[in-house]
From TrEMBL:
One of its GO terms (molecular function) is methyltransferase activity. It comes from Helicobacter jaachi. One of its GO terms (biological process) is methylation. It comes from the Bacteria. InterPro entries: Methyltransf_12, SAM-dependent_MTases_sf. Residues 3-98 form the Methyltransferase type domain. This is Class I SAM-dependent methyltransferase. Keywords: Methyltransferase, Transferase.
Amino acid sequence: MCDIGCSNGDFLFYLSDVFPHAKLYGIDILPSLLEKTRQDFKAHNKPCPTLWEGDIQSGLNLPKERFDMVFLNGVIGIFDDLHKPLEHFANLINPKGVGYIWGCFNPYPIDVFIKGRVCGSSHLESGWNLHSKQSVLEICDGLGLKGVFYDDFDIGIDLPQSEDYLRTWTFRLEGGKRAIINGLSLVHNFSLLELTYRI
């Protein structure tokens, strides 16, 4: 199992509990996050996953191996152009394997590109692009992948608003269901995309 954009290793840590005998791999562009992953696994006396410093967008330093399960969690919104990241993602999946992409996708046939800036800052933050499901599926189809979206996510807990307005929080809709929002005034439509090679 390989987690792309593994950050500080939280999902890898979860996988190590659920699948204790699985061979785990992680890829991230930031060495400091990979080091945090190593430290956390060591602190809990767990074998550390194999980690690569690599870039899913450019393909730089990605492993030659292919994996039975490949994950890309919360990363898809960073990219303006999905063709290369999805091509590199596809190249990491075994022909009989499966890939999972978790993120916010636009259910409408419009690709939305979003950047935000905290008042008083000159730095534009990215990471909240909403690629349409239609565009994503068309790209994946061109790569020989069959894609299926699962849209029944319900967070199930209340998240309080923090002082960091880029962090998400929940609010209640009519009928009691929770919606997820952040300081960009974006309501998040989370979906899980499952990808397999067409046979």
